TrEMBL record:
Species, as recorded: Allosphingosinicella indica
Keywords from the named record: Hydrolase, Magnesium, Manganese, Metal-binding
Protein's recorded name: Exodeoxyribonuclease III
Residues of the site described as Transition state stabilizer: N148
Site (Important for catalytic activity): D217
Amino acid sequence: MRIASFNVNGVNGRLPVLLRWLEETTPDIVCLQELKSPDERFPEAAIAALGYDAVWYGQPRWNGVAILSRVGAIHETRRGLPGTDDGQSRYLEAAVAGILIGCLYLPNGNPRPGPKFDYKLAWIDRLLAHARELIAADVPAVLAGDFNIIPTPADVYKPERWTEDALYVEPVRAAFAALEKQGWKDALRSLHPGATIYTFWDYFRQAYQRDAGLRIDHLMLAPKLAKRLKAAGVDRDVRGWTKASDHAPVWIELKGGRAK
């Protein structure tokens, strides 16, 4: 089973890229972020034509998350994190094929200091609290999406340039480490500990061509699911397609079919 995450940076404006990627790679379950679309404009029919069911949590112009499945029904369990009622569509959770899928788009937090960074830290606190409950429930779960967190210096080109950025400052990296301490496994890094892996390249200064990127899109696996991890990677070439998102899809492969 392949589970993927993709910040599409506008689901309608980049629909040809999304559909091409889905058709070429056929992931079983997909988490999408940054839809930038109200619910009524989500391209359900085009996605269904490729064999995917979908649930989505949209928002005009900003944010937005969705879960797609071609391996069975999507049973939505949560829309928004506990304690969050601020109109920002950043978290969607559903059970699919015996796996609990948490699709998230964590706030960027820039500029800092300021209210945007304070909001990011508060959102992270709610995520950590909910993630702790999922670990305690011992369910096969994955938290997948754009975390807007660079976990370590190995996850960014020229880390010295990011020391004051909200994606990289110490409280944010410490929160990611706290998530791992709870028992969540960083799938990509666990299988590729020494590799240079990026998932985002800015549109400016030829960042993609120079491979001056960041790793901010993550798939975090609860212990029961981490035992099934077989492979993980980034569909890097998608970033180079015409009118591509500034993110590339990330994915994992799991042993077996439905979780027990």
